[in-house]
Predict the structure.
Amino acid sequence: MHAERLHAWLYRHGRRDLSALPELPRPLAGLLAQRVSPSLPEVIRQQISVDGTCKYLLRLEDGEQVETVVIPAGGRTTQCISTQAGCALGCRFCLTATGGLRRNLRRGEMVAQLLTGWQQGGERVRNLVLMGMGEPMHNYDAVADFVRLVTDPAGFAFAPRHVTLSTVGVVPGITRMVDERLPCNLAISLNATTDAVRDRLMPVNRKYPLATLLAAMHRFAETFPKRRMLVAYVLLAGVNDSAADAERLAAMVRDLPCTVNLLPFNPWPGAPWRRPDDGVVSRFRAILSAAGLVAVVREPRGRDIDAACGQLLRRQDGELSKGVCDG
């Protein structure tokens, strides 16, 4: 009984003063005071974009730093959660990937990001996206525990359709999601329509090529027919933005219940890629739409504070801070 009340106090109500929980037995309150620290990470820096996006740089207990981003959208606020400190996958177009992997985050450190956003913003967000720094499938156990907690009706009680896990295509993780019936949506960072180009952009493709990844995506769709998959596609000028690319992409995913998110590349200093012209982006989307797909050009949020997709590795007070939201 006391565990259930503590669970609701912490997660449903976002309260961290355990001693304030009504009718908590004194011996239990004393034990919790000795054994439990419900403190949140230190907010080293808060930045607010002209579009209202908020980025928080957090210092964890061991001194490691991560960022979480809260994106307002007319009552449908979304928070982007980081699952690792750094990333080992080395996607060539992502600034975050240049920092390498330092460690996995624990479930509690993901919860702490959510609670920090709630405390700082004064209200709970509606949507969660695990599209932050790191590859969630490389930290699957902790990520799956986090997803189960936030969708638990006795916990944070997010509707599963409002929680999205993003992967660059780590197929064994998708297989586990399906087998374990993980209660969330799936987003795939695709970004190329041939193995040759995807090998160059995303080294993970050499281990899990497009045919293998597409088979896993189809299995997810067959297992969860009511869940709509998200396919993210970063457009790089002269690399993957041709009409032929659009036609191949349409052929690849037209049998999947998916929305294609087109993400024109967000430049960062020293990047070898360019953002396509608006006309090229419009043509690409038109080809997908003509093939019957739902295709959306996602407007960058928080670009002026380096909070847009793939931009979040930057210098903070003379040292490198690794950021999130690269999905």
